[in-house]
Input
Amino acid sequence: DKVTVNDVSLFFGITPRRLHQIFSKELKISPKQYIIKKKMEEGYRLLVQTSTPINRISELLCFSSSYHFSNEFKKTFKQTPTEVRNMENN
Output
């Protein structure tokens, strides 16, 4: 399921602003950046440990498109999902 900052703040019973303050203080990143980081880590794991198609991985991680997933992935890992998959399969 798609996870938003509002979902997380509601779960903990705090405001999104307070959640942002906590994340900034403890992790030095915003809640949104943390969510994207975790999605990217899971995307990387799925690419190297499964044969799941990239477009399906982007759907599983609730990205609006495989293009959006690929852009975020390249920003994070400096390689495209296809490059990582090909590198790991060699």
Observations:
- The mean pLDDT is 93.
